[in-house]
Amino acid sequence: MKVVALKDVIGTSQDVDGGTWNSRRLIVKKDGMGYSVHDTIIRAGTETHIWYKHHLESVYCIEGEGEVVTLKDQKTWPIEQGVLYALDEHDEHLLRAKTDMRMICVFNPPISGDEIHDEDGVYPVDES
Predict the structure, then answer these.
(1) Alpha-helical runs (H) found in 25-92
(2) What is the pLDDT, as a whole number, of residue 101?
(3) DSSP β-bridge partners for residue 122
(4) Which residues pair with 83 in a beta bridge?
(5) Cα separation of the two ends of the chain
(6) Residue 47's beta-bridge partner residues?
(7) Average pLDDT for residues 31-35, to the nearest whole number?
(8) What is the DSSP-derived secondary structure letter of residue 3?
(9) Which terminal residue of the chain, N or C, has fewer Cβ atoms less than 10 Å from its own Cβ?
(10) What are residue 35's phi and psi, to 5 degrees?
(11) Could you tell me the pLDDT band of residue 127, with boundaries at 50, 70 and 90?
(12) pLDDT digits (tens, 9 = 90+) for 64-94
């Protein structure tokens, strides 16, 4: 059984600031669950280019408002509290926050905990 409190992650190496976002990684690769779970704040007024070439991600918005734009087809999807989007095709996308958005994110395969996006918006794959 694992019990993780957000307050115990804040201020550790699993509390990662990416500039336009802050991700608190609650479950990571070393926990052996086969996925990772993040409590992430997307900062109001920002746009983040993301392209998870190596990961699938589901994102559930629990607070705030914004939109996600899939770049291959330029479709815009409104995001607000109670909406989940799943990047099931390694979708390259833009995430725009109108207000601060609090998102619960699940990654497969799991990330290690301290990753940030590279210049292409990608998390590296952890082969260890």
Answers:
(1) none
(2) 98
(3) none
(4) none
(5) 24
(6) 96
(7) 96
(8) -
(9) N
(10) -155, 170
(11) low
(12) 999 999 999 999 999 999 999 999 998 999 9
